[in-house]
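Revision sheet: structure tokens.
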Amino acid sequence: MIADVLQNVFSTIGALLVAGGGGAVATWLFLKLFAERWLNSKFERQLQSYKHAQEREIEELRFRINSLFDRKTKLHQREFEIVPEAWGRLVEAHAHVKAFTSYMQSYPDVNRMNPAQFEEFLKDSKLATWQQTELRASGDKNKYYQKARFHQRSSECRHHCHELHVYVKRNGIFLPKELKSAFTTLDDLIFGALIEHEINEEEDMIPKVRKAVKALDDKGQQLLDELELSVRRQMWEES
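Predicted:
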């Protein structure tokens, strides 16, 4: 556009110089050629500068897109690793605590065992050596065994709850917000039932407090089923 304007100007000036004779025309033609070359050179430099700036912006944009895609891919990979592991730990904790806090508990009648049966039973009892010694000397073997077994199962449940809680806490940043919230809710529900059950035993509560255990019975399985659907949807839809 600038070149067109200058061309018009040069045309007008050229018409004026024609009247001035051949020398003026020659001078005019030289100036016109120089100006055109100067303009072309300047235009080429500006065009190259513009192309370079555009290429640089495109390269920066490509780098940002690749970086975002790479980060998103890595986050999805971590999520695919963490969600199934967290789900497995949740199921383990729920199953152990649910069985431990159930009204229906079954124990072998140790008092009625003959010596051979009793010794065979001790081998598979998971009791420590000192506990086996105390059980042999106990006047009420059933009571002693049930108490010892209670503490064993309590320790097992605490282990599973701890594994679940720490895993979700440590990897929660890789979980979608809704899934993390569901895992945390069930984690609290399960551990609350466990603590209540332990207190009932330690304090010999009569009647036993069953509020947290009842909450786990009433809500636990439903929340677990809902979370399973969310996990399946998350994993398969993302896939």
